C-alpha cells in the first residue's frame, strides 16, 4: 500500500508521500518504544521542529477513549475511535509487560483482524508482536523480538518463526521490532521509504541519533548467561558483567555464589564447557565488541574499560577471541 500523496504548497507542484500510522497501545505498554516511534514521525513531518503534520500523520486508536496506562505509570489518551483501517498505511501495536493477562480487548483484536483482511500492514512494536501472534496474525511471517523475550515467544508460539539476533524486521505485510531505540530505527526506515531521506535525516538529527541502524543490525546485548540454566552460573556471569573491567577475582566470585573456587570451576566446565576465567574473558570481549560497533571511542579507551593496560594487549586478545582485530570488526559493523 502506498501512502497518500500530499501536495506541498511550494509552487513546485510535485506530490510527496504522506505517511499515516495508527497506534494501538496495550495495557502497560512501553512508553519509550511508542514515544520514539511517534516522535520520529513528528520530526520528519515538517521542518524546524514545529510539529506540523505536513508529511506524516498519526492517531492513537482504541475501542474507548479511556486513558491507557503505560508500564511506567504515564497515561495516554486515544485520539480516535476505531475507523476504517484503510485510512492508515500502517497500524502499529505497541506492547509492554508480558505479565498482563489481557493486554488488549476483543474489539481491538477484531479491528486488527479487519485490518489484516483489508491488507493494511501491521507492526508489532516491542512485545506488540506477542499480541499479533496471539491473534493468529503472524502466521507465515517471521517475528523479531528482544533477546529478553525470545524464550517466552518460543514457548507461547512454538509453530511461529522468530529471531532475536536483529533489531527489527519488515516481512511483507508485517513488521516487528525488539523495542527500545529500535522503534526509532524502524520508524526512520518507513520515513525514508515513503517520504524522503531528507525527512529521515531531519528527524534523526533532532533526536540526536547519528545514524539509523538497519534491520539486520545485531541487537546490542544478549547476555551470555541467558544460555545457561544453572542459577549459580547465571549469578556469577551477571557479576562478571557488573565488573567488566576484570577486577573481580575468581575466588571472590565463587564465594559470592556460595562455592569454593574448585566447585565453581567444576560447575562452569560442566554447564558452559569453559572455565570461569575464560567465561569472564568472553564477557569482557563481548562488551568491547558492542562498544566498538556502537561508538567511535578510541581503542585505548575501550581497552581500559574492559580491563586491559594497553591497546596492543587488547587487540591480541580480541583477535584471538573473534578472529579479527577490533579495527576490522568496527569497519565491518560500519559497512552494514
TrEMBL record:
Pfam families: DJ-1_PfpI, HTH_18
SUPFAM superfamilies the UniProt entry points to: Class I glutamine amidotransferase-like, Homeodomain-like
Molecular function (Gene Ontology), one example: sequence-specific DNA binding
Gene3D superfamilies: 3.40.50.880, Homeodomain-like
Residue runs in coiled coils: none
Location of the HTH araC/xylS-type domain: 234-332
Keywords annotated in UniProt: DNA-binding, Transcription, Transcription regulation
Domain of life of the native organism: Bacteria
Name this polypeptide is given: GlxA family transcriptional regulator
